[in-house]
User: Which sequence fits this backbone?
């Protein structure tokens, strides 16, 4: 399975974006209002990273929920005498 690397970047307009490494096309953008930017006092990238981490974790959980259930006894053989 190929591993895709992602990176967080700060765009020219101040938004924080998640994109594939080597790409210039953002997959997700986070934009903070000027009052929130002032409140965060330069820590908006840390907050955006936490938001992205939580989103990615949720995607993994959704995918786990969609995966077909494998019965516990699948692959086990019973011997009858």
Assistant:
């Amino acid at each position: 399975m190929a591993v895709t690397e992602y990176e967080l970047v700060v765009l020219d307009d101040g938004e924080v974006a998640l994109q594939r490494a080597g790409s210039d096309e953002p997959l997700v953008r986070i934009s903070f209002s000027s009052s929130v930017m002032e409140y965060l006092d330069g820590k908006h990238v840390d907050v955006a990273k936490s938001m992205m981490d939580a989103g990615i974790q949720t995607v993994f959980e959704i995918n786990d929920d969609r995966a077909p259930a494998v019965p516990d006894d699948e692959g086990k053989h019973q011997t009858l005498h």
Observations:
- The CA atoms of residues 71 and 77 lie 13 Å apart.
- The two ends are 43 Å apart (CA to CA).
- The beta strands are 6-10, 16-20, 26-30.
